[in-house]
Amino acid sequence: MSDHGRVIVVGAGPVGVVAAMAAARRGFAVTIIEEATEVMEDPRASTFHPSTLEMLDELGIIDEFISRGLVARYFDYWDKPAHELVARFDHEVLAEETKFPFVVQTEQHKLSRMGLRRLGEMPDVDVRLGTSFETVEQTATGVVAHVRGPDGPERVEGAWLIGCDGGRSTVRKSQGIEFEGYTWPERFVVLTTLFDFADAMGCSPRAYLADPHEWTNLFKVAGDDMQGRWRVVFPTAVDETDEEALSDASAARRLAGVWPDAGAGELVHRKIYRVHQRVAASFRQGRVFLAGDAAHVNNPIGGLGLNCGIHDVMDLLDTLDEVTRGAEPDLLDRYERRRRELNIRFVQDQTVNNKKRLEERDPAVRRANLDNLRATAEDPARARAFLRRTSLLDSVRDSQAIA
Ligand SMILES: Cc1cc2nc3c(=O)[nH]c(=O)nc-3n(C[C@H](O)[C@H](O)[C@H](O)COP(=O)(O)OP(=O)(O)OC[C@H]3O[C@@H](n4cnc5c(N)ncnc54)[C@H](O)[C@@H]3O)c2cc1C
Fold first, then answer.
1. Where would I find the FAD-binding domain in this sequence (predicted)?
2. Spelled out in words, what is the top-level CATH class assigned to the domain 6-75+101-180+277-356?
3. From the CB of 235, is ligand 1 less than 6 Å away?
4. Ligand 1 in contact with 257 (CB < 6 A)?
5. What is the whole-number distance in angstroms between the Cα of residue 309 and the centre of ligand 1?
6. Residue 403 pLDDT > 90, yes or no?
7. Ligand 1 atom index nearest CA of 171
């Protein structure tokens, strides 16, 4: 049994499994509590930036993670109505700053599965699927989580509790913490198709298409069969119903708007999401912490939300480790000082601006935005600065400077 104390992680989504692995590797005993009985496969994150790949490397899972996805050195911006490539960014300009000058596109459910399998092989790790967190009590030296498993209510004792239980976080609500921000009036539709956009249009595996009427994001993922498929993300109209947005006719119309033949491609999945920009008013209440979507949510343009969540828990476990080894408890506030501010400065700011840039309606502003992207991609120094920010390398490096 570890003498480092027990960390209770609520939620075995990708942030929770990374938190649990990071805790176990630092010598904590771990209980991870997940209400579902199996990993959800809905199409959400697939873009993992260099800053996050460095952390997955530290956890010893990078080779398996890369082998289950696609390595994407380039990403694009396109002018959708003109069917024209505007800018292609090459992560190779980051080669002197990171061991991973590329993005890896691996679906998030693969990370959760990989993590759960590895946690199952680790000593002092207790994985509880089919178990819901209900509430938590705190004492001066620890926490008691009240959970409900297949055999009814239970108490789980630990030193710390981390809420990685997603945007609707029960942990956050149990602490009475506000989720400040707003919800976009439109929803985002994700269509998954076997139509090969790279083959048809010559785009990179990640491409952002600006369009004043209906912007689009294209992502290639490997799929569980490793045969390749494309996720295509669109906004709905504000007054469009979910049923209309997900209908065969809408799907075919939207895909054909990206590339004429795409409407006839085989559609393998469709899903609609409500999208928010929200940050918890506080990331810590005593021995209870929030991380990942429980702490912050944002629109997915730029692929930042999960990356930031993984950065949260890596920073938090370092902090808990330092305090457990004797650092002053005041250090615990550093987690919120770092992670809340960086989420607002990098993730909220960039995702809102990414959306505005893609949907810009004013022709002059739109032209200036696209010209600016083109000029940035063509100038190696500007491209490097741009990619340091979009890949959250600056965010992680800046966080070290916040004491
Ligand atoms: C279309 C789309 C595309 C995206 N693309 C990207 C991308 O490319 N890159 C990126 O960085 N981000 C992306 N995101 C965001 C990313 O999906 C989320 O940030 C990520 O899922 C957050 O992970 P999480 O572990 O914090 O939360 P979740 O994935 O929501 O996991 C929370 C877990 O907690 C469990 N849980 C909830 N309540 C309880 C309870 N009471 N007790 C026990 N368990 C509980 C849930 O069952 C779930 O397993 C995208 C999102 C969408 C919608």
1. 7-347
2. alpha beta
3. no
4. no
5. 9
6. no
7. 41
**What does the pLDDT average to over 115-143?**
96
Q: Sorting pLDDT into bands at 50, 70 and 90, what band is 3?
A: confident
What H or E segment, with its residue span, contains residue 267?
strand 267-280
Report residue 28's pLDDT band, with 50, 70 and 90 as the boundaries. Answer: very high
Given a contact cutoff of 8 angstroms between Cβ atoms, the answer to whether 111 and 14 are in contact is: yes
How far, in Å, from the CA of 26 to the mean position of ligand 1? 24
- pLDDT confidence tier of residue 107, bands split at 50, 70 and 90: very high
E strands in 106-205: 125-128, 132-138, 143-149, 152-158, 160-163, 179-193
Rounded to the nearest whole angstrom, what is the distance from the C-alpha of residue 311 to the centroid of ligand 1?
14
Q: How far, in Å, is the centroid of ligand 1 from the Cα of 16?
A: 9
Compute, in angstroms, the gap from residue 341 CA to the centroid of ligand 1: 20
The token pair at 357 is: 């840039």
Task: Output the pLDDT for position 259.
Answer: 96
Overall average pLDDT of the 314-320 stretch: 98
pLDDT interval class at 2 (50, 70, 90): low
Q: Per-residue DSSP letters for 322-382?
A: HHHTT--GGGHHHHHHHHHHHIIIIIIHHHHHHHHHHH---HHHHHHHHHHHHHHHHSHHH
pLDDT band at 222; cut points 50, 70, 90: very high
Stated pTM of the model: 0.97
Q: What angle do CA 75, 352, 110 make, to 5 degrees?
A: 55
Please give the number of the atom of ligand 1 that sits closest to the Cα of 190: 1
- CA 275 to mean position of chain CA atoms: 13
Check: CB of residue 33 under 8 Å from CB of residue 9: yes
**DSSP for 84-133, written as a single string:** EEEEEEEGGGGTTT-S--SEEE--HHHHHHHHHHHHHTSTTEEEETT-EE
Tokens, residue 302 = 């730029």
* Residue nearest atom 31 in ligand 1 by C-alpha distance: 13
Q: Which two tokens stand for residue 369?
A: 């935005």
Q: Dump pLDDT digits (tens) for 226-253.
A: 999 999 999 999 999 999 999 999 999 9
